[in-house]
Amino acid sequence: MTHSSPQQELRDAARHTDRRRFLTVTGAAAALAFSVGLPAAGTASAREMEARQIGEDPFTLGVASGDPLPGSVLLWTRLAPRPFEPDSGLPNARVEVRWELAHDERFTRVVRRGTAYAHPEFHHSVHVEVGGLAPDRVLYYRFRAGRWTSPAGRTRTAPPAGARKRELSLAAVSCQAYHDGYFTAYKHLAQEDVDVVFHLGDYLYEYAVTATGGARDYTDRTLPALFNRETETLEDYRLRYALYKSDPDLRAAHAAHPFVVTWDDHETENNYAGDIPENDVPPEEFLIRRAAAYRAYWENQPLRAPQRPTGPDMRLYRRLNFGRLAQFDVLDTRQYRSDQAYGDGWQTPGPESEDPKRTLTGATQERWLIDGWRRSHATWNVVPQQVTFAQRRDLPTDAFKLSMDSWDGYPASRDRILKGARSAGVDNLMVLTGDVHVSYAFDLKQDFDDPASRTVGTEIVTTSITSGKDGSEKPSNYNNLTRANPHLKFYNGRRGYAVVTLQERRARADFRTVSAVTTPGAPVTTAGSYVTEAGDPGLKPA
User: Fold this and answer.
1) CA 477/CA 345 separation, integer angstroms
2) How far is residue 473 CA from its own chain's centroid?
3) Measuring CA to CA, which residue among 512, 527, 517, 523 is closest to residue 469?
4) Residue 206: CB atoms within 10 Å
5) Full-model pTM
6) Where are the alpha helices (DSSP H) in 341-404?
7) Distance, CA of 110 to CA of 130 (rounded, Å)
């Protein structure tokens, strides 16, 4: 029996769908279904398998929770007795899974319990939305399937809408290329006392992973050859999530804290923009790939039902509130953006990049963000998103270039956002960012070309978990970047994460870094700490 290549599967699926219908959601969903042999709507149609027939531990990928609300939590797991096999070691049958939610780690005070089905159409993933809970509570959860019990996870509900919460601690993470090193930062994050983790994109990378795990340089195991290719099909993306979630440090962080996730580009393909791929392939072929990537993302993340994709479309931007202390407007700057100007990369800005019609968010998401600010009663309005928001010149001369993939490539879009914040009366704007594999702390300026202009907010950029390998404290462009951008208050090139503590009168950012990721077990240190006062935007050393 011969198997077609991933590229051939995509082309066959594209030909199966009428080109005029393809660019609709239903057309792409049908093409995806054709390419993977699944019901187009993802309906649960399979027979039932008795859970007691599962002969190996099905909870190899751990547990997770996400998007905490005042009276509700979202719990996740995926059954995968053999996670590195395409079917995960389970037949094409649904499996009943029991879940429990308790006040204590020993589950002596159970708050809720119930059952859910793990459906093969969703790769035996389970998303359980538990409602009717008391707000602002720490809770513990676990799953059972047959005789198997999952590890326990810890989660929480958000405070009530009008609550005067005194403090909220969050972590920001991004960019975890498996092949660039060990997830040591997650081991340390699992021990942090934070309320929630924001993952700002590049949860996985589409690039091939060698038998030795790339820079991990394994000597005690050999990864299957199926990982040593770029992800293109639904099977590819599903297997890649299994590889990433097999990492014990990532599983520990998920079990310790609820996550709020958003994607960037590598969950699908490097630097794609809307329906435009990085490489020159037909749009129908790329959108089938995007549909596969989005479906696998939802299957493997602790996301609620409104985020479930249809074909190549997935509503990922959403709003979370933690009492009157903080409103979080989680953005998607990848799915709706205009194509990068001047062929992407670092370029001299000009009429193409500065075209006022260009958008990074799309008009609908932009209106949603600004309208949400107008209704906000929060002290801190925080925007977790993907790419660098502040201006970032590469040289302290008039010959500077800007990154066309960041907000610098869409300055009119950025200006509309900042004007919207001003018109909405947002006093304490904070942007959380990933993508660039370094830690930055920026003041956001009303006019980035005038250092003396008003400071209107702050941006905390978290470094990568592993991407870029070990990095260095002062990257080679450190002097140029700090001289060219006086609003840049901190710059560090090691791996790690950021912890942000929000209080009624001030916010503090601590940049945690590890000395190495190409070898396991590195200690964590705090490379820098900065504060900003409520009502007085601008960062100062703590």
Assistant:
1) 16
2) 25
3) 517
4) 21
5) 0.94
6) 363-374
7) 13
